[in-house]
């Protein structure tokens, strides 16, 4: 029997659930906003090519305009200066885009401190409780932040001192980047670094260490509360944009129920 047949049967009978971790992508989807003088990427906009009219009586289709890093998206190594000589999104090995998931749950802690940042001790505590990280894994940071995505102000959570969103310390980012079992790191926030990461050393350590180590980032995830802390499988499906530094991405999880 094919080893895939039991999976297909489990999907059909509901014993394996497909959980969509992707935020809907539209003109109102919140995207990263950098302060002047830095340039910003585009949100999604559409323009009709035809809509069952004289331009196309039996079909509808649209042109899209959007940035590579809009909405739920993958950061490829070439997105950051430390990975500029690495792979672009179209050259990522597809086998690395499917793998086991581990979830670091800090929802309660982030509710009390929006600037909470993961440290190596957080990963070591997970290992002490659940066992060694599986090979080829994606580490997902559950914070409850996706509940804020309906409000730009709440999601970006900025004041005069800049944005306040959870993330990872330089030591935590280096710990992940140095672990050969880790393929990617995903968050519910607008970017893989914390809101205050511009003041870290090095600045924006998730980008600096992870992308420099051929480890990928996922942002603006949702429904992480539907995942177990271990045991799910992730499917990451970016567009293979030639020389792309990233791509809007559909992210699915397979969860045994």
UniProtKB/TrEMBL annotation:
Gene3D superfamilies, sorted: Putative cyclase (3.50.30.50)
InterPro entries registered for this protein in UniProt: KFase/CYL (IPR007325), KFase_sf (IPR037175)
One Gene Ontology MF term: arylformamidase activity
Residue spans crossing the bilayer: none
GO biological process per UniProt: L-tryptophan catabolic process to kynurenine
Any one Pfam family match given in the protein's UniProt record, by short name: Cyclase
PANTHER family in the record: CYCLASE-LIKE PROTEIN 2 (PTHR31118:SF12)
Name of the featured protein: Cyclase
Organism of this sequence: Tessaracoccus aquimaris
């Amino acid at each position: 029997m094919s080893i895939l047949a039991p999976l297909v049967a489990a999907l059909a009978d509901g014993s394996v659930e497909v959980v969509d971790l992707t935020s809907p992508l539209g003109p109102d989807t919140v995207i990263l906003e950098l302060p002047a003088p830095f340039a910003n990427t585009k949100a999604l906009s559409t323009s009709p090519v035809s809509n069952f009219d004289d331009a196309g009586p039996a079909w509808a289709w649209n042109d899209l305009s959007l940035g590579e890093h809009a909405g739920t998206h993958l950061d490829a190594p070439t997105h950051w200066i430390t990975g500029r000589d690495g792979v672009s999104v179209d050259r990522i090995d597809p086998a690395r885009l499917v793998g086991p998931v581990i979830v670091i749950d800090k929802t309660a802690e982030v509710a009390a401190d929006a600037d909470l940042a993961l440290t190596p001790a957080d990963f070591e505590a997970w290992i002490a409780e659940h066992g060694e990280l599986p090979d080829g894994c994606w580490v997902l940071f559950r914070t409850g932040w996706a509940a804020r995505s309906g409000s730009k102000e709440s999601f970006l959570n900025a004041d005069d001192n800049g944005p306040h969103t959870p993330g990872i310390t330089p030591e935590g980012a280096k710990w992940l980047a140095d672990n050969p079992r880790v393929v990617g790191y995903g968050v519910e926030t607008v970017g893989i670094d914390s809101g205050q990461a511009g003041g870290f050393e090095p600045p924006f350590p998730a980008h600096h260490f992870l992308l420099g180590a051929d480890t990928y980032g996922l942002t603006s995830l949702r429904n992480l509360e539907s995942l177990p802390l271990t045991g799910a499988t992730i499917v990451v499906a970016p567009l293979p944009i030639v020389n792309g530094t990233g791509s809007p991405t559909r992210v699915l999880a397979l969860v045994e129920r």
